[in-house]
Request: fold
Amino acid sequence: MIITKKKPLEEVIDELKSYERVFIVGCSLCATASKTGGEEEVEEMKKKLSECGKIITGSVVLDPVCNLQKSKRDLKDFGVEISKSEAILCMACGNGLQTLGEIVEDIPVFPANDTLFLGEIKRFGVFEERCSICGKCLLTNGVAICPISRCPKGMVNGPCGGAKDEHCEVNPEQRCVWVDIYYKLKKMNRLNELRRINPPIDHSLRIKPGQHKVQRSVTNEPT
Amino acid sequence: MSQLKDLLERGKFVITAEVGPPKGADLREFKDIVRLLKGGVDALNVTDGQGASMKLSSLAGCVAILQEGAEPVMQMTGRDRNRIAIQSELLGAYALGVRNLLAITGDYPTLGDNPSAKPVYDLDSVGILLAASSLMEGRDLAGNPLKGEPPSFYLGATVNPNFEPLEIELIKMEKKIHAGARFFQTQAVYQIDIADRFMKEASRLNVKILIGIIPLRSVRSAHFVSKMIPGVKVPQGLIHRLESAPDPKLEGLRIAAELIRKVREHGLAHGIHIMAIGAERSIPLLLDML
Reply:
C-alpha cells in the first residue's frame, strides 16, 4: 500500500491560487485506505475549496488512478468537465499524479497529498513503512523483517551502536529492527542466519526510472 | 607499519585518546592538544563528524597529527560518503601516511547540526571494513585491480559492552572480525563487572580490545552519559562521589584512573581508549594518576 498524507489545506490553496475552476481526482485504492483521496475526502475537499471561492467543475474517484489505460477510458466520461477546468487537483499518490499528467496534457495537475512510503496499515489510521523497493529482495533469511525499510540507516549486518534499550537512536519510540530480527531468529532457532555477512547493496539494480515488462513465457501460452 | 599494531602485538598496555577536529579551518588549537597528548598516549584517534556535526575532516586531522610526529587512527563513518568516496579517501589516507583505520557506521544526520543532510550509509561499519580489506588485497570493492603496492591498514572497529542483548553485539563483533577488524575500542564502561562480563565472551575472539573511558566531569555529565550512551548506567555510588567531591572534575578523573588501573592490573583488556569529549587538556592529569 502506498501511504499518503494530506497536505495542509493552505498549501493546496496556494498551489491553486492562480486558478478558479478545479477538477478533483481521487483514487479508490491506496489513497482511499490512507483516508486521503477516497469518496469521503473528495467530497470534503470540494466543500472546502468551494468555501475558498473555487468553482469545482467535477470530480471522480478513479479505480485506481495509476492504471494508465483504464484511467484514460474512465476520464473520457468527464471530457466536458475537464475541458472547462483550469487545474486538476489529484488526491492520489505521486504516481497517480503523474498518470493524470500523462492523460491530461494541457491542464496543470497539482498534488493534494504528500506521498510517504510503501507500507502496512497497522490499524485504522496507523501506517508503517515496510518495503523500500530495492529491486532485489534481500529478505531471503525467512525472518520477514526488512532492515532496509525499518532501520533509518538501512543496516545490513546487525544493529548500529545507537540502539538503546532495544530502541532506535533516531526514533526512540521505534524498536530497533535488528533486535527484533535477533529475537525472531532466536525463537526460530536459526540464529546462524545473523552470522552471515551481507555484502553492501547493489544500487545498480535500482537505476531510475524503474522499468519492468512482464515477459510472456512460452510455457504459459495457451496451446 | 602501524605503531599501534606493533605495540599491541608486543603486549604493551596501550593508551589511545580521541581528539575531535575543530568546526573551522584553524588547526592551531587542535595541534596544541596533539602536542600536549602525544607524549602520554600511543595513538590519537580522530573523529569523523562526531555526533553528525559538520567538522574539519578526520583525514585532515590525521595529517596534522602526523605533522606533529604522533600516530593517528582515522575514524571513517559511512554516513556521508558512498563506497567510491570511502575507498578513495582510504587510498588518500594511506598515501599520506595514515596506517590505522576505525570503521564506524556513524550517527544519524538528524542528531547533528546539519539535520537536513542526506544520510548515505552506502556501507555500514562491516561494509567499510570489507572495502578496506579489499583494498589491502589490491582490489577495490567491485573487484577492479589497484595500481602499485596496495595499502596496508591496521583495521579497527567499535563494540559496546553495555549493549543488551549482548549476544547480538558479539555476533556483530565477529562479523567485523571476519570483515578484517583486528582491534576494537569499546563504548564507555563505568563498571568493572560490565567490562569483565564482556571480556569473558570477547577474549576468545583473538583480537586486541581497548576499553573505552569517558571521564565524568560532574553529576550532570554522569546523567548525560547515562542518557546518551546505549546501555550505560553510571552507578549511583560514582554519582555520590561526584556530588560530595569539592572538585568534581578531579574526582571524575580519579574515578577514571581507578577503572583504568583495574583494567590494567587484572589484565582485563589490551589497553584503554580515552574519550574526553572536549576536555582533552585534562588527559595528562589523568595519565599522571595511573
In short: Residues 3-288 of chain B form a domain with the TIM Barrel fold (CATH 3.20.20.220). The longest strand of chain B covers residues 14-19. Chain B has one domain: 3-288.
